[in-house]
Amino acid sequence: QVQLVESGGGLVQAGGSLRLSCVASGRTLSSYTIGWFRQAPGKEREFVAAIRWSGGSTYYADSVKGRFTISRDNAKNTVYLQANSLKPEDADDYYCAASVKVRIGSWRHMEYWGKGTLVTVSS
Q1: Which of 35, 86, 113, 120 is the most buried (most CB within 10 A)?
Q2: Do β-strands 58-60 and 2-7 pair in parallel, antiparallel, or remain unpaired?
Q3: If you write DSSP's letter for every residue of the chain in order, what string do you get?
Q4: Burial class (CB in 10 A: 0-12, 13-18, 19+), 111
Q5: Over the range 67-92, which residues count as b (16 or more CB within 10 Å of their CB) and which as e?
Q6: Integer Cα distance of 43 and 38 in angstroms
Q7: Which tens digits make up the pLDDT trace of 13-69?
């Protein structure tokens, strides 16, 4: 299996930035897609961004395009989400997830999940 551990969440003022990290261990990630998702209380889990480990193709939700950047560090088995120009509506629990078979934009197709890291945005 793949184990995922997120970090980097915290409290930031609107307009500020955070860098979230997702450290993966276990199986080789060469065939995996790693995604970031977020969920606020009472709301459905939402796709944020994804990256294919092999090749590095990236995908973004329209709501974060131009503000968030997903990247990977192969040597560290880590995926990052650089979140800039944060808005109050970005405040959520952020989860990273991994899967070989994916449907970009859908959390239901992800196989492995981290426990999440909380992002709070104050106005």
Answers
A1: 35
A2: unpaired
A3: -EEEEEE--EEEETT--EEEEEEEEES--TT-EEEEEEE-TTS--EEEEEEETTT--EEE-TTTTTTEEEEEEGGGTEEEEEE-S--GGG-EEEEEEEESS--TT-GGG--EE---EEEEEE-
A4: middle
A5: ebbbebeeeebbbbbebeebeeebbb
A6: 10
A7: 999 999 999 999 987 899 999 999 999 989 999 999 999 999 999 999 999 999 999
Phi-psi domain of 41 (left: phi exceeds 0; alpha: psi -120 through 50; beta: other): beta
Structure token pair of residue 99: 């899967």
Q: Residue 80, CB half-sphere, CA atoms under 13 Å: how many?
A: 13
